[in-house]
Design brief:
Layout: H1 11-17, H2 23-37, H3 50-66, H4 69-73, E1 78-82, H5 86-92, E2 96-98, H6 101-108, H7 114-127, H8 131-151, E3 158-161, H9 170-186, E4 194-199, H10 202-215, E5 219-224, H11 227-236, E6 240-243, H12 246-255, H13 267-281, E7 287-290, H14 296-301, E8 307-310, H15 312-320, H16 331-335, H17 346-354, H18 357-389
Parallel strand pairs: 1-2, 1-8, 2-3, 3-4, 4-5, 5-6, 6-7, 7-8
Helix pairs in contact: 2-3, 6-18, 7-8, 8-9, 8-18, 9-10, 10-11, 11-13, 11-17
Length: 392
């Protein structure tokens, strides 16, 4: 103990004020008290003491433990919210956001967003034309209206999807993308803040090439399941790809005897890792945004990926998770990957993609599902058009 000349009676008030802090901080305070009241210990010597060295050696880990997995992930990867719900964006503060017909359909049913639906319907009716033309204009306006509102809440970009029913028509995809960008520009939004989502069919990839080269419109290639799709997108020099993780896992669980995987063995994680390594090894400008996650293990196994688009539910889990997150993907490890560079023309693309049964099935299934939700949204819009015309 300190000598009798060190008045311990004066120590308790300071200690009582510090009882809420972590043990390492309390130990530092004790060390400083010792230094202050001892005639024989210099103030600087506390920093050389073994106790202080021990405290300082563990405190960074303590600090990391205090950070959520989401906060840690944001140090290595741009986090994107996969939602059309503005409230989720407010809560988790992502850099970017993505939408698709399924998400817009869900959001359009919420009372909080009925004003956007009503505005889009008024816009479409005012534009005139056949019912089909009105519905198409309303759909485009609605998608853009959600995007405009989302951009008020994020510093980065929003992804808006072209109708999946156009997935095999390059010219129609280009025309629809340009119309969407025109609506954004009418709302005062620069095209640099928008990514146009296109299905990663051969036609979609070539539409992306034309939009990027000829019109300076940035594209996000979605429904990407095969390495052939990824190679073709890189060669088309599109801005971004969204390789799916969870849907690949779903397929393997449904079509093989294996029903569970560790995150690093997850087929979707393995697929995205290979694509990331290939892009970084050969210096492609296209960036990788992992998408479609089933659990936080998949997300953490892809820490270090350029971007990850994550649902609000999993963002919530990550915000409550305090396990340590470290980068699993890095440009340095990618350089060492054993991957040969390949070139794909249309014939090679179609054959190699066709050889991947999972990718063929999931691409067609994804297009059908997005198309089905687009049809549901159209049905809802048609009902509202009739209500407006009937004065309801």
């Amino acid at each position: 103990p300190p000598s009798s000349s060190a008045p311990l009676a004066r120590a308790p008030p300071l200690l009582c004020l510090s009882l809420h802090v972590h043990a390492p901080v309390l130990l530092v305070l004790l060390s400083l008290l010792w230094t202050r009241h001892s005639k024989f210990v210099s103030r600087a010597s506390v920093y050389k003491a073994p106790l202080f060295s021990l405290i300082m050696s563990v405190s960074p880990d303590k600090r990391r433990k205090m950070e959520s997995a989401l906060e840690q992930l944001k140090k290595y990867t741009v986090v994107v919210a996969d939602t059309g719900d503005f409230n989720a964006i407010d809560e988790y503060k992502p850099q970017d956001a993505t939408t698709n017909p399924s998400l817009i359909l869900a959001a359009a049913k919420m009372p909080a967003y009925q004003h956007l639906v009503d505005q889009a319907i008024k816009y479409g009716i005012a534009k005139g034309g056949s019912e089909e033309e009105q519905v198409t204009n309303i759909m485009d306006k609605l998608f853009v209206s959600f995007g405009v509102e989302i951009l008020k809440k994020i510093p980065g970009r929003v992804s808006t999807e072209v109708d999946a029913r156009l997935s095999y028509d390059k010219d129609e995809m280009v025309a629809r993308a340009r119309r969407l960008i025109g609506l954004y520009e009418d709302a005062g939004i620069s095209k640099d803040r928008v990514l146009i989502k296109l299905s990663s069919t051969w036609e979609g990839i070539q539409a992306g090439r034309e939009l990027e080269d000829k019109y300076g419109i940035h594209c996000n290639m979605t429904l990407l399941f095969s390495f052939a799709q990824a190679v073709a997108c890189a060669e088309a020099k599109v801005t971004l790809i969204s390789p799916f993780v969870g849907r690949i896992l779903d397929w393997y669980k449904e079509n093989t005897d294996r029903k569970s995987y560790e995150p690093n063995e997850d087929p979707g994680v393995v697929s995205v890792t290979k694509i990331y390594n290939y892009y970084k090894k050969y210096g492609y400008s296209t960036v990788v945004m992992g998408a479609s996650f089933r659990n936080t293990g998949e997300v953490k196994a892809l820490a270090g990926c350029d971007l990850l688009t994550i649902s609000p539910g999993l963002l919530g889990e990550l915000s409550q998770d305090h396990d340590t997150v470290t980068p699993c993907l890095t440009p340095q490890t990618a350089k060492a990957a054993d991957l040969d560079k390949v070139h794909l023309n249309e014939k090679d693309f179609r054959w190699q993609h066709n050889e991947d049964r999972m990718a063929v099935e999931k691409l067609s299934d994804g297009i059908r599902k997005f198309a089905a939700d687009a049809i549901k949204l159209e049905t809802m819009i048609k009902e509202k058009i009739q209500n407006v015309k009937n004065g309801q």
